[in-house]
Amino acid sequence: MAAAAVLALSLAAGALAQPAAESSPPTWAVWTPKELRFVYMGFTSHYSCDGLAGKMRSILLQLGARPDMKLREVPCSGSFGTPSPFPGATVNMSVLTPWDAASANASVTPVPAHWKLVQLTTDRDPLREAGDCELIEQVKAHVLPLFTARNVEYRSTCVPNQLQVGGTVLKAEVLIADDQQAGQAGAKRSTPAPQPATR
Fold this sequence. Notes:
Elements: H1 2-17, E1 27-39, H2 49-62, E2 70-73, E3 88-98, E4 111-119, H3 126-130, H4 133-142, E5 149-156, E6 168-177
Antiparallel strand pairs: 1-3, 1-4, 2-3, 4-6, 5-6
């Protein structure tokens, strides 16, 4: 029993003596303005302009857009909450792009960021989310290219007017600002921004 206690104390002391693992350095990025005009055309699900605007805001935030985006519904037929044949939205937003010290603009301050694997979700209900498969297809084609993304994985068995739970999946690693983690457990401390390379 005493030997076991001595062994446990030795192991604990050894663990304390080891240097703490260094955290990986941040990926530096800059906020870059982007403009999007999106019009949905589909057969399975029909959205009101305000309903589509809500879904688009959620999608853009998941992909890393800055929350202060300006999103406006495209004028369309139908009253508030009424499905429209071609609902749409225009968006002015800022997204992260990698910072390059060699070609950096001195007036733009880079921010620490990290790569995050995101699987787009459009609804908590799996059946209703299955009805958004055409929306996800169009997001992949027209929205995702505005963001810095890598390792994109997309698969779809979307058939108009046929719902298949889990049939459409869009995953990608996207750049997310570290400060979006503020207030959460384990949030990273601010890191001094690097300076542009001297020419």
